[in-house]
From TrEMBL:
Descriptive protein name: ABC transporter ATP-binding protein
Keyword Glycosyltransferase attached: no
A GO molecular-function descriptor: ATP hydrolysis activity
Domain ABC transporter: 12-251
């Protein structure tokens, strides 16, 4: 096993887009995380890791204004969060598509533009052009007229990225967008998100169980576990010492062929990914 140097952050940005101060989320007497102080800058790529039930999706719901903090404050571009804000694009956790849905790929993307309006989307020329541009940006034109139920997981995920980008958001929230994709499509989808970050300085908050496909893109990691957290660069957070102190028990982070493998994290599988076969 050879130690591979981890990627250092590519930017240090004072232009903060998301500011959390003394933030806590608790349900009843169960505290998911507390004392969270963090500032995320424009164009920053943050991975949110942690075992099942540690509060990763809830963290995104707080940013989306769908869940109130139980203590502390959150500002999105210096304002309190607001449900339905066009500042935020959201790729929700994968949901199965109803086999009988009449929606086609391009309809899904159009919902990102006019989904807030009641009734079926109205297809004016400007909207059609915007949808075409979004489809083009994610390489989904070829299958955009097919019913959703006939699309593969990778194709659907491209469309979901396009839908989330429809409002040209300053912040892109991704909830396990790589789940159930093969390695090739994990790379494709991660690169689509990263490309947007590079070209538009979009801040990315990326919930994942598997950091390896995005390791080279990640500036900082928010690791949630046991009602606590660690926040810092991958080199700071993804170490045996840091994760052992977070979990309160011995956890080993090993570097294997350029991949990170977390061994022994209680109550879950390896957040750094399984060792490659
Ligand atoms: N509105 C709510 N009321 C009470 N408990 C909640 C509520 N929302 C979430 N929880 C609980 O909070 C915990 C964290 O949920 P969350 O979905 O944020 O976890 P997660 O880290 O995203 O998990 P996973 O990796 O399984 O997706 C879970 O135990 C969940 O049941």
């Amino acid at each position: 096993m050879t130690a591979t140097p981890l990627i250092t952050p590519r930017r240090s940005n004072t232009d903060n887009v998301i500011s959390l101060s003394g933030a806590e989320l608790a349900f009843g007497d169960r505290i998911l995380w507390q004392g969270l102080d963090l500032e995320l800058g424009r164009g920053e790529f943050v991975a949110v890791l942690g075992p099942n039930g540690s509060g990763k999706t809830s963290f995104l719901r707080v940013l989306l204004g769908q869940q109130h903090l139980s203590a502390g404050t959150l500002l999105i571009q210096e304002r309190p969060p607001r449900r339905g804000s066009a500042l935020l694009g959201y790729i929700p956790q994968h949901r199965a598509v109803a086999p009988q849905t009449p929606l086609r790929g391009r309809d899904l993307v159009r919902l990102g533009l006019d989904g807030h309006r009641w009734g079926l989307p109205v297809g004016d020329r400007r909207t059609r052009r915007q949808v075409d541009e979004l489809l083009e940006a994610v390489g989904a034109k070829a299958f955009s007229d097919r019913p959703l139920a006939l699309l593969s997981g990778g194709e659907l995920q491209r469309l979901r990225v396009a839908q989330a980008l429809a409002t040209d958001p300053a912040i892109l929230l991704c909830d396990e967008p790589l789940l159930s994709l093969d390695l090739h499509h994990q790379k494709v989808v991660a690169e689509l998100v990263n490309q947007r970050r590079r070209t538009h300085d979009t801040t990315v908050v990326f919930v994942t169980h598997e950091i390896n496909p995005i390791l080279e893109m990640v500036d900082r990691v928010l690791y949630l576990a046991e009602g606590r957290f660690r926040f810092g660069t991958p080199a700071e957070v993804m170490t045996s010492a840091s994760l052992s102190s977070l979990y309160g028990s011995p956890v080993e982070v090993v570097h294997l062929n350029g991949r990170l493998v977390v061994v022994g994290a209680p109550g879950s599988h390896d957040h750094g990914g399984e060792p490659s076969a």
